[in-house]
């Protein structure tokens, strides 16, 4: 029996959510924020997100006339245009349930791919910390463990916030060079099953909660600046 319109919409939404949740390892590591509905009224799709408050401390017994106010950092976030898949079905298309199920599955995979690409590009274009090494991964002078540890060392020394956890993603070429070395970093010498199933190399590698791979990572152009550290 053919499904009615409401059932088709429900099927499509459920399929898309399930697919995006299953095949977007980078997007799953990102924090999701739902703005209050009232704040979106006449906002031109711009949201001011509170980031952190500054609390200057003072030493001394007498703090008369030294009171400070509230200083809160805010970041303006602009919502981009939504990604959609808009298609039409004729009445005779609805006779075969498998036809529109395949169409919905195809749309779900494409939308999931777009989400993963946007997350990867956002991290590359707006990242505030860049780690470089003159040596290729997998060489004797820069093995995979040290390459990952360099990033964690700077994050830890600068006391960067890691409440959401930390993850490290390799592109396919670097994963090929680094994966074999990192999978042996288990204290029992075991290679995790996830390395074969979903690309998870190892957990708790050089201070990172998860080390994974992704084919969506963009390649950054090498800097030509000199005389900087």
Describe the protein in words:
The protein is of the alpha+beta class. It folds into 2 domains: 1-48 and 86-127, no CATH class; 128-213, no CATH class. The protein is 36% helix and 14% strand. The chain has 6 helices and 5 strands, in the order H-H-E-E-H-H-E-H-H-E-E. It has helices at residues 5-22, 25-29, 97-126, 144-157, 172-183, 194-197, and strands at 46-54, 71-78, 167-170, 202-205, 208-213. The strands form 2 sheets. The chain has a 3-stranded mixed beta sheet. It has a two-stranded antiparallel sheet with strand order 1-2. The longest helix has 30 residues, at 97-126. The mean pLDDT is 73.
Write the layout of secondary structure elements.
Layout: H1 5-22, H2 25-29, E1 46-54, E2 71-78, H3 97-126, H4 144-157, E3 167-170, H5 172-183, H6 194-197, E4 202-205, E5 208-213
Parallel strand pairs: 3-5
Antiparallel strand pairs: 1-2, 4-5
Pfam family, one: P22_CoatProtein
Organism: Salmonella enterica subsp. enterica serovar Schwarzengrund
Keywords: Capsid protein, Virion
Structural class: alpha+beta
Strand order of the largest sheet: 3-5-4
Compressed to H and E, one letter per element, the order equals HHEEHHEHHEE
**Rounded mean pLDDT score:** 73
Q: Which radius of gyration do the C-alpha atoms yield? A: 24 Å
- How many helices? The count is 6
Measured by DSSP, the beta-strand proportion falls in 5-15%
Keywords: Capsid protein, Virion
Protein name: Coat protein
